[in-house]
Sequence to fold (192 residues):
Amino acid sequence: MAGGAKSEAAEAKRAKYIAKVRKAYRDGELTCAQADALRAAGVNLDRFQPNKAGVNDLATKRPDLAAEWHPTKNGDLEPSAILAGSHRKFWWRHWCDKTQSWNEWEAAAASRAKGAGCPHCARSSEARIGRQGKIVRCIETGEVYRSCSAAARAVELKNAVSIRRVLLGKQKTAGGLHWVYVDGSGKAGKSE
Ligand SMILES: [Zn+2]
Fold:
């Protein structure tokens, strides 16, 4: 009898552990090697959404948010290694027009995907667009420009049309480079 109770407790413990690792998997917190080891141990992970690099990772799905990925505070993690909808908290950084400084903050990727931005910026993205929607950043170089035209001049484009098209999501690159509004919002592009 005592043995039965003991194995019941062990089973409950294992169920709890499996629920935990499945959540970690769903949230994109496991490396491929960790997931493989769990599968080898008999944990069924495959009905949960895997983190597929190039498909559903943050860098692929939300390059605008990936551009605000904190360069040092997320350890070795890169936006390409985490699930775009991850509920895990990460560090972000952007040039904040409101405070005129680099702001860094912690937030879940999932809440950022829903529109949560820098805590210093206005809650309303509409208000943000009005104030700072013109400031753009080149993802590759990290350079920030006060307008599309200034950016176009700096990278020796004839005009800012192609950069605006990138910000609108109509083309991928301008001058071979990727561009985002500094507030990181893809919606900012649509309002122009
Ligand atoms: Zn800000």
